[in-house]
Amino acid sequence: MADGGAAGVFAGVGGRAxxxxxxxxxxAALVLAGLGFVAYRNSFTVPFVYDDEPAIPANxxxxxxxxxxxxxxxxxxxxxxxxxxxxxxxxxxxxxxYEVRGYHVFNxxxxxxxxxxxxxxxxxxxxLASARASRxxxxxxxxxxxxxxxxLVHPLQTDAVTYVIQRTELLMGFFYxxxxxxxxxxxxxxxxxxxxxxxxxxxxxxxASKEAMASAPLVVALYDRxxxxxxxxxxxxxxxxxxxxxxSTWLVLxxxxxxxxxxxxxxxxxGVAWWEYGATQLGMILxxxxxxxxxxxxxxxxxxxxxxxxxxxxxxxxVVGALVALTIWGIFRRPVLGFLGAFFFGxxxxxxxxxxxxxxxxxxxxxxLSLAVVLVVVVLGAYGLLSRVxxxxxGARDPALGAVALLALAALAAGCLFTARRNEVFQSELSLWTxxxxxxxxxxxxxxxxxxxxxxxxxxxxxxEQFTIATGLPQCGIDAYNNLGTALCELGRLDESVACFxxxxxxKADNPGAxxxxxxVLSRQRKWPEAVEAFQKCVSLGxxxxxVHSNLGRALFKxxxxxxAIQAFQKALELEPGHEIAAKNLKVVQDLLKKAAETQR
Length: 601
Prior knowledge:
Order of helices and strands: HHHHHHHHHHHHHHHHHHHHHHHHHH
Number of strands: 0
Strand content: under 5%
Helix content: 55-70%
Number of helices: 26
Largest sheet: none
Shape: elongated
């Protein structure tokens, strides 16, 4: 596929150096695993929340390893179009069904392995660069470990690690780093072809994990130019086979994207103009950068609010514009800067550029891998600055490295503390959505979800208050109106509840949730034929729910349509074999029919 490129840079390294290298990797693995456990030990009991629900507990696609998935289950959850993510969830299910601890252990293990890959990549890269700065060669292991450890425990990472379904980001990040590490190793290995093949395989697996992997082939090329080759021409001549292999993995991504797994939430023509979304991302990227240095306002859901006015757009435009310009300049004049900038923006581009994601304008998990670039710049910048201030005498230890290590220890302690505190917020949906509402009071989805939690715990009045707030905010989703209708029903305000659901259906006639809610309130009013019609319409729209079929069966029974009621209860039990209400009502109807038959005889 490719020759060694710059293989031989470290020719002559003997067994002793190899032993030291493996020793440093083992030490790093132990340190990183320990730090990961300290920072995330309280995440193992965090329940499934928000997008976890449709992707894991309510997702029949993960309940078998073979046949893999279910073609007739058309709910668009986070794992759709990401087969490697689905496979990982299916493995978790096979090992422990819905025991949440196993899912969290998997996420944390993947995060620690990614940190170890980052350590290896930074160490190897600093040694490649040490031809121009000899002091980096000896400092490389320590600086690499500091960078990887800070990245591992940074509180900004909790969205990707603690929120189970965001392992999409974890898997993509792991394979992105594995691709870069393989490419880097191929430059110095006596067996470069094997590393190149591994790099292409990892790149393909990353494409099957998340779309942000798209930039990996280009970033690998920029890495080679920055650290191994003096010119673009020589680089392409020596590595063109490898680059062709990496580029071929775009076909994997294209096939998955064409399948349209998120065609109702991502893309153009969904009600959000590309330029409005792009302008909003300028401010979001600036916000992410601030959180990288001071993670005080971490938030699960940033909502759908778009930036309005010059005051909201200008600061981000100036900072991000300057960084993009520096990246473009660096690609041609200072390849190392170009590589770092392209790595940072390449990860963010699929979600934080001009392609609208209408369900959320921002998400902290998008910074999962880009954060590594920020920390590399900070750690190496601090080391370079301190090296100029703290002069090293001949034969003495490096005082700048010691100073950086002391600063890093303080930062690591703070990182572990604040990450553990953030995990506490995830311990219940009530605390999570209360926190989100406090930080984003203009987010209708946050109020809706807080109301949903109140409703589930019987706090109907508080739920009604939150649903009312949500429906009064711009860009409120249909679900909040359905939940408001249900709350009105629970409060006994049945006519208002019917009016609420009918209003939803006037806006969106194919909304199954509104028909389900309408059927429920009509049942409360004992309008059984109308309730039957509403539930049947809900089912006809493809809504797969044992509760809906059970409620339909009850309405059919009350309307005197016993045989159809039996079929509805049986369908409910088919969807959920342990559904107690459906089983009880089925037995009641069957017993009544049996008695009637005996009486007639």
